[in-house]
Amino acid sequence: MRLLIRSFAALLLAVSLPLSAAPMHSQFLPPDDLTLRDAEPEQQQLMQVTDYSVVVGAQRQSNQQPIPVTSPLMIRLKGKSLNKGASITQVLVNFDGESKSLKKPIYDDKSKTLTLFYPQAQYRVIIDLLRNDTVYVQFLSYANGHIWADLHTGAVRSR
Hints:
Elements: H1 2-16, E1 43-56, E2 59-60, E3 69-70, E4 73-81, E5 90-96, E6 106-108, E7 113-119, H2 123-132, E8 135-141, E9 147-153
Parallel strand pairs: 5-7
Antiparallel strand pairs: 1-4, 1-8, 2-3, 4-5, 6-7, 8-9
């Protein structure tokens, strides 16, 4: 009987261990056609969003001619880290309506803040996700310099 219990416990432990070193939530990554993610990520931050706030700013720099007026749009996400070793506590989602290319995602370990940049056209999509679903933020960085970051929902059953 003891041997049976030990065997069952060992089986449960083996089944609970990951089969590969794939990152958590890897099912939400797009196909890796260029094999940029062929190795384990050096760093992974995974956070479940619990709170968000929208910040619409206005600034006018009076020391420049002509005087530029800008109105930055940002969403501040707060949440809880989900994977071992993750230290992320907040995400700043910045929207850019003018640039032809976006800045790369940046994770600042000191402030535990991930900064993401999206085109302004994605604002409504992101707000809809935050209002209607559980949202996760994922950040992966690889030794080859590749960086992946996303906002995604969990699997949602269609109606």
